[in-house]
Specification:
single chain; about 500 residues; alpha/beta; Rossmann fold; 3 domains; 7-stranded parallel β-sheet; 23 helices; O-GlcNAc transferase C-terminal domain-containing protein
Length: about 500
């Protein structure tokens, strides 16, 4: 059976440089045949790791294809990275084991870097191999730092190395506005959490003080995507929209460097490989990361991370390789785009989804966050106990990116009282939230946009804050509002709060 694609993992460079055909070489026919026997079709021109991980669900089929990789180095590397990147391995593996496999992958890159061939370098930089490590509960700063140091050193051995080490020149201070660039490839140019978190912030910058640059893919230089709500306002609010050829890393580095920016802001480092590759270079005297992707970059050429004192724990600086800047605001201005994206009643997406939702008195527990945020070990420790306390509850999850084995494991843990919904149009998703009794913030990597959407629909989301920023947004929003009731401090309290709000409609409405 074919697995679903992970948009976070889409390659940045030409797939031909790291394609399945290039990597398995003379074994291509065998790889295609093995996949076909499992009911999957793999495209030999797409990037190898992306193609195999997103199309192959069965572990035995995955391992058989990985064993056909001709490079001894890449074969060993893929067998380590599968534990954090492949859905079945990912959900079956505990966090400590994932970290151990990632450390092994780093050691392999360090060992083979001096002798790496062009194909091997292309494969390494074409996908965000470290991305899924973001969702483990272990500290990530040193892990990310080690990985990016490996890759940066690897690239430095190639002809691109001269661009990485060329310092950004600051122009003489004769201009009266700071030149600030926002690297918008790729989440700022699509309807994503990053776009919704950042669009109003960029639009709100004082044009008397800042000359702004929005850096996007070349096809959006003249005009924004047609179906992107609010994009005309964002594109029109900046002084310059700069289009880059995302398949030519040298051209991107050169083009951004020639903007002579004072500050370059990355709102999503790590979610797309190109964000990491450009951040390895010193393209501006000051380089800033922020959420977007709510974790440290681990990249030494990124100077600051912008966050908020409402979210961060007392020892937050230890989580960042950058200098942490904690604002007194929530550091976002969140737009409510629900009206523009609300689907008409009677539309196929809207109608088919609402038809499968059981009516009252069934209590709907919304857990519809991306599959990577679902920690099966935490789920098994908490959600069956919530079900025991509220036997008429049904739990809602997203179907996308869950392997069938993982869906079966969740269904078994929750005694079959679970629905897996397809990818929904945004308006329908918001309607599902509105129909839910409560939402559960997943742990340790919680929600941000989901929490804000729940507030816009007047629904409670029960949260257990994590130790790092991704698991602390919801409690920060609550504390800013002066609401503390739905914030748990232990797993037991998380269960108790969920049961209480499910069963006590009066108390639930009081908080809502």
């Amino acid at each position: 059976m074919a697995a679903n694609r992970h948009p976070e993992s889409e390659p940045a460079l030409p797939a031909s440089e790291s394609s399945l055909a290039s990597v398995v070489g003379s074994n291509l026919a065998a790889a295609v045949s093995i996949a076909a026997q499992a009911g999957a079709r793999i495209d030999d021109v797409n990037e190898v790791f992306f193609e195999v991980l997103t199309r192959i669900e069965e572990i035995s089929t995955l391992n058989a294809i990985l064993d056909l990789v001709e490079s001894v180095f890449l074969r060993a590397l893929f067998h380590e990275l599968k534990h954090i990147s492949h859905q079945v391995y990912y959900h079956d593996t505990d966090d400590a084991t994932k970290v151990a496999h990632f450390q092994n992958a780093c050691a392999l890159v360090e060992e083979y870097a001096p002798q790496a061939k062009q194909l091997e370098v292309a494969v390494l930089i074409s996908t965000s191999h470290q991305y899924h490590l973001s969702y483990v509960s272990s500290p990530k700063k040193d892990l990310f730092r080690r990985w990016h140091c490996c890759l940066r050193d690897l690239i430095a051995r190639t002809p691109l190395g001269e661009l990485l080490h060329h310092p950004a020149a600051r122009l003489p201070r004769v201009r009266w506005r700071l030149r600030v660039g926002f690297f918008g490839i790729d989440k700022l140019q699509k309807f994503s959490s990053v776009y919704r978190d950042r669009m109003n912030v960029i639009q709100g910058l004082d044009s008397r003080r800042f000359e702004t640059f929005l850096i996007v893919s070349a096809q959006y230089a003249a005009s924004p995507p047609r179906d992107l709500a609010g994009a005309d306002l964002l594109w029109g609010s900046v002084d310059h929209v700069v289009g880059c050829d995302v398949h030519d890393l040298r051209a991107v580095l050169t083009q951004v460097g020639e903007l002579h920016l004072d500050v370059l802001v990355y709102p999503e480092i790590g979610m797309h490989p190109l964000t990491c590759l450009t951040a390895y270079a010193r393209l501006a005297p000051v380089q800033v990361a922020t959420w977007g992707h709510s974790l440290t970059s681990g990249i030494p050429t990124v100077d600051y991370y912008f966050s908020s004192a409402w979210y961060e724990p007392t020892d937050a600086e230890a989580n960042y390789s950058e200098t942490l800047v904690q604002m007194r605001s929530l550091c976002t201005s969140y737009p409510d785009l629900s009206i523009k994206h609300r689907v008409r009643k009677g539309g196929a997406d809207y109608t088919s989804t609402l038809e499968v939702l059981p009516p009252p008195p069934t209590k709907l527990v919304c857990c519809m966050q991306t599959s990577c945020k679902v920690n099966l070990h935490f789920l098994r420790r908490t959600m069956p106990r919530i079900l025991d306390g509220a036997p008429d509850a049904v739990f809602l999850f997203m179907r996308e990116h869950f392997a069938s084995a993982t869906r079966d494991a969740i269904s078994e843990a929750l005694a079959g009282q679970v629905l897996f919904l397809p990818t929904l149009l945004f308006g329908t998703f918001r309607t599902v939230i509105a129909r839910s009794t409560i939402l559960l913030d997943l742990h340790p990597f919680g929600g941000c946009n989901t929490a804000l959407d729940s507030f816009l629909e007047g629904r409670i989301i029960v949260t257990l804050p994590g130790s790092e920023l991704p698991g602390r947004f919801t409690q920060g929003f609550y504390r800013r509002m002066g609401v503390v009731d739905p914030i748990a401090s232990t797993e037991d309290e998380y269960v108790d709060l969920a049961v209480r709000f499910l069963n006590d409609s009066k108390e639930r409405r009081l908080v809502e």
